[in-house]
Amino acid sequence: MNMSTTPATSQWINKVPEVTLSFWIIKIMSTTVGETGADFLAVNAGFGQGITRAVMGALLVIALLIQLRTRRYTPWIYWLTVVLVSVVGTLITDFLTDGLGVSLYISTSVFALVLGYIFLIWYWAERSLSIHQIFTRSRESFYWSAILCTFALGTAAGDLATEAIGLGFIWGALLFGTLIVIIYVAWRLGGNAVLTFWIAYILTRPFGAAIGDMLTQAKTYGGLGIGAMWTSALFLSVIIILVVVAQCSANRHKHAQLTK
After folding, report:
1. CA angle 239, 64, 27 (to 5 degrees)
2. Prediction pTM value
3. Which parts of the chain fold into alpha helices (H)?
C-alpha cells in the first residue's frame, strides 16, 4: 500500500504529536491523573462509580468527536482526550474488578488479546502501525481504539502486579520503570521503533498508576498519604503548563506557515 501523502490526505497530517521527552512526561502524568482523578471523583467527591463513569464517558465521546473533526494536531484537544481516556480506562478496569468481580488475571489477559486484535486489524487494513502516519479518519479511529485499550490493559496489569501479586506501589513503580528503561535501551540499540513505542506506551500506564497510588494511598497501605485531590491537582497543573507551551509552539508554527 502506498503510504505517501496525497492532496486528499494532506489535510489530516499531524493529528498526533511528535514523540519527544515532553510527550512521555505528559503521557505518564496523564496516566497518574487518570488513576488519581478517577478515585477522587468516585470516592472523595462522592459521585460514586456509576455517575463518574457516565459523566467521564460522555466527556470522552465529546472530546473524541472534536479530535476527529480537527484537521491537524491541536495540543490542547489531543491531550484533553488522552486524560479523559486515562480516566475512562481506569473506570472500565475498576468496574470489571470491583463491580463485576472479574479477576485481574482474566481482565489483563482479555485486554491484551483485544489490543492484539486491534493491532492485527489495523495492520491488515493499513499495513502500518506507525503513529507518524495518522492522517486519515480510519487510521485515527484505529489509533484511539488502541489508546483506550492500552490504558485499560495498563490499569489491569498495574493492579495485578501491585495488588494481586503483592509487589506494592513502590516495587511496582520500580518494576515498570525498569522495563521502560530496558525498552528505551532496546530502541537505542536499533530495536523496531513502532514495536518499542507501543510496548513503552503500554508500560507507562501501570508505571504512572503505581506512582499515583504510591502518592495518594494512606501510609498504612504503603503509600505516602498525599491524597487523590492534591496529587491530581499537582500533576494536572504540570500537564496544563506543558500543553500550553506546546499549543503556543503550534500556534507560532501555524502562523509562520500562513505568512509564507
Report:
1. 30
2. 0.87
3. 21-39, 48-69, 75-94, 104-126, 137-159, 168-188, 193-216, 228-258
